[in-house]
Amino acid sequence: MTKALILLVTGAVALFVTGAPGIASAQTPTAVGTVTAVSGNVTVTRLAAAPQRLKIRDTLYSRDVVEARKDGIARILLGGKTTVTVRELSRLELREEARADGVRYTVELVAGKVRASVARALMGPGEQVEVRTRNAVASVRGTDFIVETGERPAPRRAFGLLAGREVAEGIHGGAARSEETVVVTLSGVVEVANGLEATGRAERVGAYETARISGQGEPIRLQIQGDDMKSFLKGLTPVRPHEATATGPSSK
Fold it and tell me: Per residue, what are the HEC states of 138-189?
């Protein structure tokens, strides 16, 4: 009787697990993007695995961490609708979250600089793209913009020069109050808020405008002046086809 009861319980548990999509898929990561170009030393880290060299046409999954080291650059198609260019000395995590009002794609920028170009015509109802740093959130539905983050320089440099300096590779730890983020809008409108302040106001940053967030302060919006745009775009030149590399072990 005891053996029969054990077999009955085991069968019921197996049936429950295979019949519950949430449980069956909990171990399966969600594909969020594809690598469309890569050059130099760029790696991807998935879960607890060791970093693998990123290759063109690799599939990227939610919670993957992409790191571009010195002279590395990569371009990612996120959700089939957003092109993300990752500059050298940058580290980010990709996320996808299904919400009641639509899907939210998030680029968690730990250090460095990215450019995101969102195809508004392809965005579904409620879909949104966010770039988050330790102290800022930039939210869009369709635009072209740049985000860079790093430790606040001391003494503070003139505004607009943050994009011209190299960010130390792999910033870890440190108080968020020393963090500085710059958001540059190339086209469209980006809503920028301080992620540390739940009640902080959101600043709407239009084309050829920029917002700077220092520590826990509110965004300061300014017009881009003179040659500042060249500094902001530095290191974000798209990878040429003949520069893309397909060498190294697969990240899958």
Answer: EEECCCEEEEEEEECCCCCCCCCCHHHCCCCCCCCCCCHHHEEEEEEEEECC
